[in-house]
Amino acid sequence: MSLRTTLRISQVHRFVGRFAYASRMLFTRPAARAAITQRGTQSAVRDLVAADDALPRPYDRDGALRFPFSPGAYDAGVRYLFDFAVLANSLGQRPGAVMLDFASGPGYVSEFLNRFGFTTVALDNDRTMLGLARERLGLDPRCDAGRSSFTTGDGMHLPFRDASIDGIVCMNALHHMPDYRTVLAEMFRVLKPAGRALFSEPGSEHSLSPQSINAVREFGGLERDVVLNDIHRLARDIGFGRMVLKPYVYPEIVELPCDELDRFRVGKRVSTPNAAPWEIADFVERCHPIFYLEKRGSQPATSATSSPNLLRAQITIGACPARVAADDALRIAATCHNIGRSTWLAEPRALGGHVTLGVKILRDDGRLVDASRGRAALPRDVPPGDSIELVTEVPLAGLTPASYCLVVDMVDELICWFEIVGSQVARHDFEIVARTAPPAQHT
Q: Looking at the domain assignment, is residue 206 inside a domain?
């Protein structure tokens, strides 16, 4: 069988969510829940999947453009959204990074990442599928075509330069690949240092299910097991620094009664299945592992590329007047010291991540009046340990005479004010007074 045929079949199966469909049959029927409760996930999985040999229908154009948001794909779609949310929270990247949508199919991963602000590269060996992915992103004005591209290729020979990709998302495609070592080695090659390849896959008994057996017989594709220990060994041999599991089970198969919370807290047995550590481990290993492989190395930590939790500032402001006439401006001179662990970028970015000096005006009871006045741009990048002097004027036009508090903080634009992540701010209390009318002139 040709690799093209194998990957083409994988697109059909991936889109309809073959494993998600099997999981729905397994975990949402009352008989299935009862069997799991009585025998545990380990002994029930194979029997219950084997008892259901119905195959979901292949995709069509309308379904491909809508997935996962369509009535006919509700069960699979909800699970794919859950899986995507876990992977998206594990990217180790910030908007603006270049993400490879591996075996993209109809492109829903590219769409979601693009809307979050990532630059996306959809890779598939099927030109028709790539055309649908391109059409899909074009249908939504919230997607930025300038941050998306579509590349024909296969997973065994990625058509990208070494160390050119920030991260890779592989949703239910690895188990269709004929050679895991080659695929993972190619991913390792194209990833930048510290980049991650993230996977949502079926588990170690996937090939035994009737759905997989029927798929191989009817379509001629590959339905392989994903054995975590084997993947871990391959990843280490190739050079990945670590393999990290995300040990989550689907929400609908864990329902903890509130009156059992205290038992659950201390590790005692509870009535719901799939809540004990060994049951979760069994589900992850046999049914549905979500994991990532991380390449060794590091990337420069900046306000645009690193976690906001690395941001810290120490701000000192010079002497300011305690009373200001209405409609005047308050001049602020600030010394801003970077005591965090990431460089503050100065150049404005459409997706944010550049740092400015910001000012909030609060009433004397702490309520926010305005947070848009007095922004000051950085004249240069500020690395950790460095300081910069900034001057800004805060116009007070439109504010009624009263007592106010001025809060001076750094802002990682479109991301957060530094105070939100625990940084200290500088404060100055002042009063706006009515401007005194000039005395009347007598002739």
A: yes
Residues 291 and 312 in one domain: no
Question: Residues 332-349: pLDDT tens digits?
Answer: 999 999 999 999 999 999
Q: Cite the beta strand spans of 94-147 per DSSP E.
A: 98-102, 119-124
Token pair, residue 48, equals: 């219950």
Of residues 207, 221, 229, the one with CA closest to residue 289: 229
Q: Output the pTM of the full model.
A: 0.82
pLDDT greater than 50 at residue 201: yes
Q: Into how many domains does the chain fold?
A: 2
Query: Is 408's pLDDT higher than 60?
Result: yes
Q: What is the mean pLDDT of the chain?
A: 86
- Residue 74, both tokens: 């509700």
Give the Å distances, CA to CA, from 323 to 333, 402, 425, 431, 432: 17, 10, 21, 5, 6
215 and 326 in a single domain? The answer is: no
For the domain that residue 365 is a member of, what is the CATH number? 2.60.40.2550
Which of residues 260, 295, 330 is at a domain's end?
Answer: 295
Element spanning 430, H or E: strand 426-433
Distance, CA of 379 to chain centre: 31
Strands (E), 172-328: 191-200, 240-245, 290-295, 313-317, 323-325
Range of the domain at 365: 308-433
142 to 96, 112, 116, 240, 305: CA distances (angstroms)? 15, 10, 10, 35, 22
Which run of H or of E encompasses 416? Answer: strand 416-417
Query: Rounded to whole angstroms, what are the CA distances from 437 to 325, 434, 441, 443?
Result: 11, 9, 12, 18
Asked if 390 and 410 touch (Cβ cutoff 8 Å), the reply is no
pLDDT at 441: 63
Same domain, 256 and 150: yes
CA 256, CA 251: separation in Å to the nearest integer? 10
Give the helix/strand (H/E) hosting 27.
Answer: helix 18-28
For 58-100, the pLDDT digits (tens) are 568 888 899 999 888 898 899 999 999 999 999 999 999 999 9
pLDDT in tens, 120-179: 999 999 999 999 999 999 999 999 999 999 999 999 999 999 999 999 999 999 999 999
Mean pLDDT to the nearest integer, 287-291: 95
Q: How many CA atoms lie within 13 A of 17 on its CB side?
A: 26
- 438 in a domain, yes or no? no
pLDDT for 58 equals 54
Please report where in the chains the tokens 């993972």 appear, as a residue: 184
Do 276 and 360 fall within a single domain? no
Shared domain check, 231 and 174: yes
